[in-house]
Amino acid sequence: MPEKGGRAVCFVCREAVFLAGDGDSWIGFAQCQLRSDYVEGTQTCPVGYLEGIYVELEYRRRGIAARLLDACEAWAAEQGCTEFASDAEISNRVSRSFHKSMGFTEAAEIVHFAKKLPGFQSGSGDKDVIS
User: Fold this and answer.
1) Predicted pLDDT of residue 120
2) Counting Cβ atoms within 10 Å, is residue 13 exposed (0-12), middle (13-18) or buried (19+)?
3) Rg of the chain taking only CA atoms, in angstroms
4) Could you check whether the bond before residue 118 is cis, i.e. omega within 30 degrees of 0?
5) What is the pLDDT of residue 38?
6) Which segments of 15-92 does DSSP mark as H helices, in order?
7) What pLDDT, on a 0 to 100 scale, did the predictor assign at position 130?
8) Are 17 and 31 within 8 A, CB to CB?
9) How does pLDDT run across 58-77, given as a tens digit for each residue?
10) Which of 52, 104, 114, 130 is 20 to 30 Å from 31 at the Cα level?
């Protein structure tokens, strides 16, 4: 991994961000955190969780994402975690393939639902009660 990568650049409470760089450019990142809520497929608490990982297209398939993930997993282990988890959109074949190649197993396929609640305006960011 280029010299800018390989260490956390930001620790906020129970979260870490790792960056990969090439010269003066950032080419990838991984964000992870500790989760104490229920995490599909795990049995312990807290669980290290990969919230996001990205490597610029022209730098892919060089092991950069794997090293970023390794950094996240090492950080989680240092925090006392014995399990590490992640998620991917059902339709994101690239992400699902990456996860499987990194030793993850699929724990579940979940569909999320959302709806607007009556009585609230949306759009401004502030929620005003409509009488």
Assistant:
1) 76
2) exposed
3) 18
4) no
5) 93
6) 64-78
7) 52
8) yes
9) 999 999 999 999 999 999 99
10) 114
Residues across the chain: 131
Q: Write the Ramachandran bin of 39: left for phi over 0, alpha for psi from -120 to 50, otherwise beta.
A: beta
- Which residue positions in the chain have pLDDT lower than 70? 1-12, 122-131
**Nearest to 17, CA basis, from 3, 27, 2, 6:** 6
Token readout for 107 is 């724990």
User: What ranges do the domains of the chain cover?
Assistant: 8-101
Tell me which amino acid residue 5 is.
G
Q: Which strands, in side-by-side order, build the sheet including 84-86?
A: 8-12, 15-22, 25-35, 47-55, 84-86
What sections of the chain are H helices per DSSP?
64-78, 93-101
| Domain 8-101 class in CATH | alpha beta
